[in-house]
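User: Please fill in residues for this 158-position structure.
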């Protein structure tokens, strides 16, 4: 009987838990209260201002139903602004506020430190190989995700 500790799914789940814990510790140490998903939403809006909520969800591979709560929390903190889209009254255009831009600039060192800490025990070649293999697994398995990354949106947006 195979041990659960040797199952790829279990190890991936554990690594996700570890990466979130490191992110929270690093960012809280700098006085920030953002989740990795909230950071991803802000960073994507910085790079793609004026996208709508559904597009943002696809670009960060987040569930379209729950992205509304993420957006609401970021808006309540004054980091983003929602405005009705001119060509579709049902859609909302999302943009960063000055506070959102400022928090992204200030949190960036903690985010980079998080990424380094997650793979700190791996040497340069092992890190590169780990990243290569993760890209293969996420790209080839994307269609199985309940919130797949919509690469066409990423490409179309720049």
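Assistant: Residues filled in for all 158 positions:
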């Amino acid at each position: 009987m195979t041990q659960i500790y040797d199952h790829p799914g279990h190890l991936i789940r554990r690594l996700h838990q570890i990466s979130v814990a490191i992110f929270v510790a690093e960012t809280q140490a700098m006085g920030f209260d953002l989740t990795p998903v909230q950071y991803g939403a802000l960073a994507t809006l910085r790079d793609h201002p004026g996208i709508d909520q559904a597009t943002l969800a696809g670009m960060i591979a987040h569930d379209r139903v729950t992205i509304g709560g993420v957006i609401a929390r970021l808006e309540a903190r004054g980091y983003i602004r929602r405005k009705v889209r001119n060509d579709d009254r049902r859609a909302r255009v999302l943009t960063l506020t000055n506070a959102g831009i400022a928090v992204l600039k200030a949190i960036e060192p903690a985010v980079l430190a998080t990424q380094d800490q997650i793979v700190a025990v791996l040497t340069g070649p092992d890190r590169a190989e780990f990243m290569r293999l993760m890209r293969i697994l996420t790209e080839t398995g994307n269609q199985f995700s309940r919130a797949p990354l919509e690469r066409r949106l990423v490409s179309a947006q720049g």
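For context: Helices lie at 8-29, 36-47, 53-59, 67-76, 98-118, 124-140, 151-157.
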